[in-house]
Amino acid sequence: MELFLSASDPRPMYQQIVDQVTAKVMAGDWAPGQALPSIRELAAASHVSVITVRRAYEELERAGVIATRQGKGSVVAERADLPTVLMHDELQRQLEALLAIAARLGLSRADLHRFLDVAADAADARPNTPKGTTP
């Protein structure tokens, strides 16, 4: 399990762990049921405290990304739809951030639709973007 934690990142270390594990599950890099290192192993490998990793694992478990079994350790939650659910959650967070920025700019719903159409058209025009994949 390779995680890259940075002291210069403004996010707390536990949040960096949560974000990176979630990203790996979303991308399908880590399959349902895949074992995670123990809290102690990850703490030693990442040069952070056991408390930091424990907090990250607790957050991941609350979010449904991992499951922990007493005496067995932690595994990626065994849900085939987990990557899709996580991507929908991330899309919702991004949309909420977009709406907050649009409100600060005073943009109307029609303005937002135009921005979205322009962005989708630009994405469709890129050579490596499959057509019709933009939401």
From TrEMBL:
Checking InterPro entries in the record gives: Tscrpt_reg_HTH_GntR, WH-like_DNA-bd_sf, WH_DNA-bd_sf
Task: List membrane-spanning regions.
Answer: none
Q: Does the keyword Transcription regulation apply?
A: yes
- The source's superkingdom equals Bacteria
Q: Pinpoint the HTH gntR-type domain residues.
A: 11-79
Q: Which UniProt keywords apply?
A: DNA-binding, Transcription, Transcription regulation
Which Pfam families does the record cross-reference, listed alphabetically?
Answer: GntR
SUPFAM superfamilies, per this entry?
Winged helix' DNA-binding domain (SSF46785)
Specify the protein name: GntR family transcriptional regulator
State the species of origin: Arenimonas soli
